[in-house]
Amino acid sequence: MDVLSNLGDGFLAVLTPINMLWVFVGALLGTAVGVLPGLGSAMAVALLLPVTFSLDPIGAFIMFAGVLFGGLFGDSIAGILMNTPGNSTAIAGSIEGHRMARNGRAAQALATSAIGAFIGGIIASTLVVFFAPRLAELATLFGPAEYLALAVFAFVAISAVVSDSVLRGLASLAVGLAIAVVGIDGISGAIRFTGGVPELFDGIDIVVITVGLLALGEVFAVAARRGTREDTGVIPSGGRLWLSWSELKQAGPAWLRGTAIGVPFGIIPVGGSEVPTFLAYGTERRLDRRRRKPMFGRGAIQGVAGPEAAGNATAGTAMGALLALGLPTSATAAIMLAAFRQYGLQPGPLLFERAPDLVWALLASFFIGMVVLLILNLPFAPLWAKLLKVPRHYLYAGITVFAMLGVYATSSKIIDLVLVLVIGLLAFMMRRYGLPLAPMLIAIILGPLAETELRRALAVSEGDPSVLVSSPITIALYGILVVTLAIVGVQRFRAHRRAVAA
């Protein structure tokens, strides 16, 4: 009952005219910044951090809650409409979301994203309120071997299971791993594959890679198709605000599955929502293959619902881990940690005792912020979809300009503009020859983590490789992976035999 009483006090603190204004302003600004390619939700929090310094702590963190969840939805808007997600966490949902938009279902895709974000965020926030200390204990169960197993699971699942061709998936994975090792080795300090360019010592920024692969790669692909049979002309911008009963039946279980996948990852420091969103996407794609008429590749609503719910569920429990343990498990959580310190506060177990008014107001603002976002963005989904009515040469020229500005704004380095062009051309070639982008992205995101944890595990065990499969978590992850690969292999073999017989 103490939890409910404290949460009620938090709602009373938030439900004042001035604090509701900050929630609304934060949600609006977060969405606006998140829509811009190359910026995204983490950048929205970082850019708006100085704006809050003149506010009292409760007002500032209430505004941050709106910015956080508004930025996540803004990431998805850009990805669904223009295939240029504002952040890497929106990549998985953009794959099928953009295909829905190209089929004239942009408004349904945005509505699915908004409702999925609401469901995932609400469930995660409820769990944080009641179980934050217990959920945070799960993070202590993961050591170097467990993190490596998690990374290997994601590598193989995305490359071999999600991709249509295992060989092409593994080739894309190899390209991603090659890009991931550019820079200074974090353990030995050795300089690798930089060509003697000092600007590459820190590696290639994920913003540069994401914008190059998805934004410029799509621009080049559209430009190459112009005037050919593959040119589909203007993307239809229709679609209805509401979801039909059949669409709700397809999206409903995907929202719940995505939430279940995303909740645990918020308290595991793997860098953000990329892993759970891709795992949710892979899960929905595997389930779709059992249907009589698979929809993936043609705009499957489950491919939007699962990743969107997973991403917001991860963001919600990440804030719980930050408050309960002081453990930032994502880039956005790390920026929020800096905001806490700006006000002389240290997140952790003692925060609930030292600043209970702030903590419970912040937790209450999660619920209110997501309701405000749903009210704010769901009716405007058809309006956002009208962006597709902009003539394509103007639309994609604008995407290119904003993408380049976003990349330059994050680093102020000319070399990043060169790199984003090179990566954009690479993405165009991969699209042309049928290499999937998802394995490459997951390799770039998780490659450094996998390498570091492998070396740490072997260093602790003095070179004994058995340490990599010495815990129940690692055995379970590798076991699930082997069983999944066996099932997928049998299914593809049977499908091949049926095709040959036909």
Quick summary of this structure?
The chain is built from 20 helices and two strands. The protein is an all-alpha fold and 502 residues long.
Description:
- With about 500 residues, the chain is an all-alpha fold.
- The protein contains 20 helices and two strands.
- It has one domain (about 1-140, about 200-445).
- The chain has helices at about 1-15, 15-35, 40-50, 55-80, 90-100, 105-135, 145-160, 165-180, 205-225, 245-265, 275-290, 300-325, 330-340, 350-355, 355-375, 380-385, 390-410, 415-430, 440-460, 470-500, and strands at about 185, 190.
- It has a two-stranded antiparallel ribbon.
- β1 (about 185) and β2 form a beta hairpin.
- About 50% of the residues are buried.
Q: How much of the sequence is in beta strands?
A: under 5%
Number of strands: 2
Topology order in helix (H) and strand (E) letters: HHHHHHHHEEHHHHHHHHHHHH
Overall number of structural domains: 1
State the main characteristics.
502 residues, mainly alpha, two-stranded antiparallel ribbon, globular, membrane, DUF112_TM, Tripartite tricarboxylate transporter permease TctA, transmembrane
